[in-house]
């Protein structure tokens, strides 16, 4: 019973339910897929449009996840409004992520201005490090270790891709292969988590147990 | 306050322990409500692993004691029950914890 009095642990347990359904994992996996497909489109659409073409897909995916959360997840898991301390922590997290993204954008712009093939590995290493930093912060603040693993996968996809390109001259820096495999791993993780959630949390029987009050003191 | 009399221990704070909170299920409910602003019925059911009927009964007891507020609304066509801890409930849980800790701390090893 004293374990129940650990308020900190109770709060963490409540917060961890946010990522129980695997939907954000599927979203992140799709983000990885963009890095697998964009290089394939760049010869036809150019560097900008080969990435920009995915924006409507992102919007669609975001709406789809929101709809699934509302119509499938919430009736099974319920909803909760977190306490003030957690909301303050999430705000801090959002600003931190925004700051690092802006820095990453500036670095990316700097590299774009000095477009040079020999910079490929340095560029990949820098971007990989930035994503690893973002994922570490996300894993810490959102208390979800998987996000750190995804950051590692991103870093590895970039580095292994560059290595494949240097060693075997695999086209598009090997990104379609490395990011494709990483995306598959992450999307599969998300799908497994989602179906596990569906199995473990069926729709509650509202009237079925109303008479079950035998051990209420 | 516990007073040692020879080998026997007289534990007064036990009498002060809030019997409404002392039931494990209600203690669980209050603990979860303590750390959030509010939660709906299904969420509490999932967290506490209580059945619909049990949770409903325990919540009614807590509501009668003034420890929680239960707001019944509709979200579209579906009923939605939002539960939150009152200030009285928050203070009661704090007192319960300190009373229980006091009793347990003063028990001999």
Provide an overview of this structure.
The complex is a heterodimer of chains A (217) and B (109). Chain A is mainly α. Chain A has one domain. Helix content of chain A is 76%, strand content 1%. Chain A has seven helices and one strand, in the order αααβαααα. The longest helix of chain A is centred in the first third of the chain and has 30 residues. The C terminus of chain A is likely disordered. By secondary structure, chain B is α+β, with helices and mostly antiparallel strands. Chain B has one domain: Orthogonal Bundle (Arc Repressor Mutant, subunit A), CATH 1.10.10.10. Chain B contains six helices and five strands. In chain B, strand 4 and strand 5 form a beta hairpin. The relative contact order of chain B is 0.19. Chains A and B meet through helix 1, helix 3 and strand 1 of A and helix 3, strand 3, helix 4, helix 5 and helix 6 of B.
Structural class of chain B: alpha+beta
CATH topology of chain B: Arc Repressor Mutant, subunit A
Task: Write down the CATH class of chain B.
Answer: Mainly Alpha
The total of beta strands of chain A comes to 1
Number of domains as seen in the coordinates of chain B: 1
Proportion of residues in extended strands of chain B: 25-35%
| Termini Cα gap of chain B | 18 Å
Distance between the termini of chain A: 16 Å
Helix content of chain A: over 70%
Low-confidence stretches of chain B: 1-8
Count helical runs of chain A. 7
> What is the CA-atom radius of gyration of chain B, in angstroms?
17 Å
């Amino acid at each position: 019973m004293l374990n129940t009095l650990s308020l900190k642990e109770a709060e963490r347990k409540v917060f961890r339910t946010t990522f129980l359904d695997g939907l954000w994992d599927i979203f992140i996996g799709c983000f990885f897929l963009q890095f697998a497909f964009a290089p394939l489109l760049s010869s036809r659409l150019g560097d900008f449009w080969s990435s920009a073409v995915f924006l409507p897909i992102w919007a669609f995916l975001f709406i789809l996840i929101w709809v699934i959360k509302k119509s499938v997840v919430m009736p099974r898991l319920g909803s909760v409004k977190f306490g003030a301390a957690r909301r303050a922590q999430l705000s801090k997290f959002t600003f931190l992520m925004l700051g690092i993204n802006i820095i990453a954008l500036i670095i990316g712009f700097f590299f774009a201005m000095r477009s040079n093939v020999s910079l490929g590995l340095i560029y990949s290493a820098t971007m990989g490090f930035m994503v690893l930093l973002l994922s570490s912060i996300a894993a810490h603040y959102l208390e979800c270790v998987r996000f750190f693993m995804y950051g590692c996968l991103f870093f590895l996809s970039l580095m292994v891709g560059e290595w494949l390109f240097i060693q075997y001259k695999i086209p598009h820096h090997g990104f379609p292969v490395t990011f494709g495999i990483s995306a598959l791993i992450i999307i599969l993780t998300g799908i497994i988590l989602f179906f596990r959630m569906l199995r473990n949390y069926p729709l509650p029987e509202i009237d079925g147990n109303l008479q079950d009050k035998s051990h209420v003191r | 306050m516990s007073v040692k009399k020879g080998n026997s221990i007289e534990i007064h704070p036990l009498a002060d322990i809030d019997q409404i909170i002392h039931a494990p299920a209600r203690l669980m409910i209050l603990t979860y409500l303590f750390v959030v602003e509010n939660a709906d019925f299904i969420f509490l059911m999932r967290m506490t692993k209580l059945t619909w009927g049990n949770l409903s009964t325990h919540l009614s007891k807590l509501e009668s004691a003034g420890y929680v507020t239960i707001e019944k609304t509709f979200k579209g066509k579906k009923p939605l029950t939002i539960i939150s801890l009152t200030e009285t409930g928050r203070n009661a849980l704090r007192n319960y914890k300190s009373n229980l800790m006091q009793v347990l701390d003063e028990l001999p090893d």
